[in-house]
Amino acid sequence: MRAVVQNDKRGALGGWAAVRGGLAVLAVAAVVSACAGPGEDTEVRPAQGGGPLKAPPAAALDNYAARRHADHDMMAAAARRWGLAQVPLTPPPPPEHKPEITARNGFEVTGQEEEDLPPVFTSIPTRQKIVFLTIDDGAEKDPAFLRMMSDLKIPYSAFLSNYLVKDDYGYFRRMQSLGVTLDNHTLTHPYLPRLSYEEQKHEICGMQAIMKKQFGKAPAAFRPPYGNYNGDTLRAAKSCGIKYAPIWAEEVFVDHWEYREGEQNLHPGDIVLTHFRGREDWHGTMADDMRRFLNEVTREGYAVARLEDYL
Ligand SMILES: [Zn+2]
């Protein structure tokens, strides 16, 4: 039971909102069973080591060096413990000025700017070698995954669909307590363009209300299931208090990657999607999936940054 999201490079297909300009947007076709549903430099410093340092007071130098050394040792040990090929890179500090997020070209709906609708985008404008990890649905609730991401200090955002998380909100509360932002992925994970405005509003606002109740906060970000939406989706989302509708540039599975673009590589600011799935859904665990993801991004010289720091 897993969703297969494919890039279709031949043209747009059903589900995309009215596409302005009609250029070669790579539409996403969803073949679904359940989908359980401030610097300008592009360098990223090695985790807890190497790279330029802020000079500490001379008297603290010994302690500072010792602490950095210990931090580095700890990260190296964590990377070994979780079977990574390399220590993940440390992202730059959050930007002083957040970038302006606009709808990706060709992903706008009619009325996008006039009605100030939440933008749909697949990457964050940045020149730094960072990517953003987003994890969807919520079927698999693996305690080892929480430990792994915490040990390795990897930020990510979770887009939750109520029908999959309602049997264990506690798991996601633990995730939230570890610094993860929880976002809206509808109540029941429907194909939204097929629903009326009112039905879409129920799916999105209903999830906002549940998240406020269960997690204390209504999200600012919403992701339409399968990446499919229309004008009503974004109008409904806006009426529910949603500011952003991030989708994704790449999707990572436990055994392969899928890129939206033909060039098949990472770009600065790309949003990467994966899913909370386990052995029942694919041939591996969440930890296996994260190993594949982290090994690839580190090998390509990218760090994983926190999406909310840029929104
Ligand atoms: Zn989903």
TrEMBL record:
It comes from the Bacteria. It holds the Pfam family Polysacc_deac_1. CDD domains: CE4_NodB_like_6s_7s. Residues 129-311 form the NodB homology domain. GO terms for biological process: carbohydrate metabolic process. GO terms for molecular function: hydrolase activity, acting on carbon-nitrogen (but not peptide) bonds. This is NodB homology domain-containing protein. It comes from Streptomyces brasiliensis.
